Amino acid sequence: MIAAIPFWQRKHFHEMTREEWESLCDGCGKCCLTKLEDEDTGEVYYTDLACEYMDGDSCQCTVYSRRQEKVPDCIVLTPDSVGDFHWLPQTCAYRLLAEDKPLPEWHPLVSGDPDSVHRAQVSVRHRTVSNASVPEADWEEHIIHWVL
């Protein structure tokens, strides 16, 4: 019975509706963290600095529909671009599905509960500082390793 198979298991990214595509996001907030790239090695480091528009409690963007206007370099994941973002966390549903891996039990689509990502302590809830409050010269001091 095809209806019993969740859409993310039976559809390719390009076959998903916009609503289905958006629902893949688990709401962890990790993509809203400032990342630093080593120019010599290409290695990407996460910081605990979040975009000034990320709500630290919900891990949601407060200006989501206007995010590109407010933050021109804010990324927009599309079915065509998922593979371009090698820095996506290993827990990211977009990355997992692109790598033919299953969604974890705590993912809201699996658990049916949008707070399950926070209870599983996979999100950045209450663990960030606004990047607007820290001078860029000090960002290296905020490199973290708990994201990965």
UniProtKB/TrEMBL annotation:
Listed Pfam families: CxxCxxCC (PF03692)
InterPro entries noted in UniProt: Puta_zinc/iron-chelating_dom (IPR005358), UCP006173 (IPR008228)
Similarity comment text for this entry: Belongs to the UPF0260 family.
HAMAP family the record matches: UPF0260
Protein name, per record: UPF0260 protein EZI54_18620
Organism: Marinobacter halodurans
